[in-house]
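re: ur question from earlier - yeah i can do the single chain one, its not a big deal. heres the input i used so u can compare w yours
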Amino acid sequence: MATFNYTVDTGPMAEEIANVSNHVNGTTGAVVAMRTAVIIAEERASELICDNVNKGFYSLIRSQISQKVAKLQSEVDSHLMQLVQQKNALLNIQNRMQRDYNMIAGRYIKLFNGLNTSLKNRIFALDKPTIDFACNEIDKISNRSKYLTATIPVSQMESISLSQKIIASNAKQRALYVLNSMKWFIHEMNLQKLLNEQILISDMELKSIGSVFIPIAIMESNRDSSAQKNVDIIVTTKELNINVQSEILNRLYSEFNKFNWSQKKPISNEISIEYNKLVAASIKSTRTKELASKLFQSNNFQTF
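and the output i got, formated as tokens:
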């Protein structure tokens, strides 16, 4: 069999393969550089996106907070204005109440001062001699040294004797006034005691058996718009115990429908004179006295 030997030159192919290897190496470097650039770009893009997202989120939150702050500020301002108005209204009410209180307090102070003066005059009028002695004579006696004639430390014998006589005369005169006042006071006390003994009932008289006249007051009135009349009976509590008062009231209520009422005759002169004295001695105004006299004259009542 024939044998053929050929020699093939591989140099160009090796060169071409070396060139391809260089290109592959360049492509690999380009790919690595591109990958690095892509990674850097993606990192920058992600950071930019995160920054924008964060900025937008913070802007949104800030906008919402600003809106809520503005809304709440407007509500607070409206409530503050309302509170200021209510404060002014309460201050006006307080000032008005203070004025009303001062006016009412002044009115009642004037009224109670008048009542105090009236009660004082009436109490003083009950026992005028004792009041005069306690309020006037006691002060004079306590301050008698101020009313006595004073003498100078240095004087002649004639002036000393005359001054002593004047002092003695003054003391005797004031002692006479005191004795007369005491005499008059004791005399009035005795008269008052006799008058009380004539009016009051003694224990011996209460123990005796007999008829006793007891004053009562029966008042029939209509206190509302209905036609029903109310009956009030007032019995004195002097010298009567509870059992006797109850017995009298029960008897009067049971016998009330049997009473024959008749028009009262003109008021007696003694009662009119006594009432006029009380009106004249009152410290009320003239208009009040005239109205009281007019009501007394036009009084119309019945008895049985």
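The radius of gyration is 61 Å. not sure if urs matches, ping me
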